[in-house]
Amino acid sequence: MKKKILAIVMVLAFAFAMTACGSSSSTGGTLVMATNAAFPPYEYVDDSTDTGFAGIDVEIAQAIADELEMDLEIQDIDFNSIIPAVTSGKADVGIAGMTKTPEREENVNFSESYATGVQVIVVKEDSAIASVDDLDGAMIGVQESTTGHIYCEDDYGVDHVTPYTTGANAIEALKSGKVDCVVIDNEPAKAFVEANEGLKILDTEYVVEEYAIAIAKDNEELLEQVNNTLAKMKEDGSLDAIIDKYINAE
């Protein structure tokens, strides 16, 4: 009888493990993506899609899920909650225009890079700020916990940087005069400037960086699967096609 009970417990435990987030060791199940859907064109809300979201990262995540024969579930959370969601097992992957940094690598593994990001400076059209050299003494708006936030605090000090939960909130602060400029990724910057009259992007690049996918350190199998899928997408041109769909190829 004890052996039968033990066998039943083991079967139930196995079934739970196969359905738990991030625990599947093979194809099937659900791939949970943690993101911050306020970062167009990488991720943004779009109620016309099956997932309710669209963007470069969303399509890459869908391609990975399809390759692994999994369903895709997207969790829209604060950017600074993405890595904790991955490390706690609430999400399998963190995909949000995220740059690999030594600090983040202490907590998660990162995939191979899938896109290049450029941090730029957004100002009002009549701003006295003309280049990076003019940022000394300025109040800089950023999205909290992003590399732009980290870089600006390192370069100009905490007292000269105001973090906001989203890039859109930082742009609103710029428009209302609460900050003198916003440091953010080039592609969202383009979308924000197009949608808000009176703003412009300075020609000077602030930082160039590589985006990658965050995965829990104890999930080496998923890391390998993601890297294999990205390599396949790079080889067959589907990765470039996704990026070109949202960003005009030069």
The global form is: globular
- Which range best describes the helical content: under 10%, 10-25%, 25-40%, 40-55%, 55-70% or over 70%? 25-40%
| Alpha-carbon Rg, integer | 20 Å
Unreliable stretches (pLDDT < 50, length at least 5) are: 1-20, 22-26
Strand content: 15-25%
Order of helices and strands: HEEEEHEHEHEEEHEHEHEEEHH
- Tell me, rounded to a whole number, the average pLDDT: 90
Distance from first to last alpha carbon? 70 Å
Number of helices: 9
SSE-based structural type: alpha/beta
The total count of strands amounts to 14
Main sheet characteristics: 6 strands, mixed
Layout of SSEs?
Blueprint: H1 2-19, E1 30-35, E2 38-39, E3 43-45, E4 53-54, H2 56-67, E5 71-76, H3 82-88, E6 93-94, H4 102-105, E7 108-110, E8 115-124, E9 140-143, H5 147-156, E10 161-164, H6 167-175, E11 181-185, H7 186-195, E12 199-201, E13 207-211, E14 214-216, H8 220-236, H9 238-246
Parallel strand pairs: 1-5, 1-6, 9-10, 9-11
Antiparallel strand pairs: 2-3, 3-4, 6-14, 7-14, 8-11, 8-12, 8-13
Task: Characterise this structure.
This protein has 250 residues and is α/β, with parallel strands linked by helices. 38% of the residues lie in helices and 23% in strands. The protein contains 9 helices and 14 strands. The strands form 3 sheets. Strands 8, 9, 10, 11, 12 and 13 form a 6-stranded mixed sheet that branches. It has a 5-stranded mixed sheet with strand order 5-1-6-14-7, sandwiched between helices. A hairpin with a 3-residue loop joins strand 2 and strand 3. It is globular and about 55 Å long. The model is unreliable at 1-20 and 22-26 (pLDDT under 50).
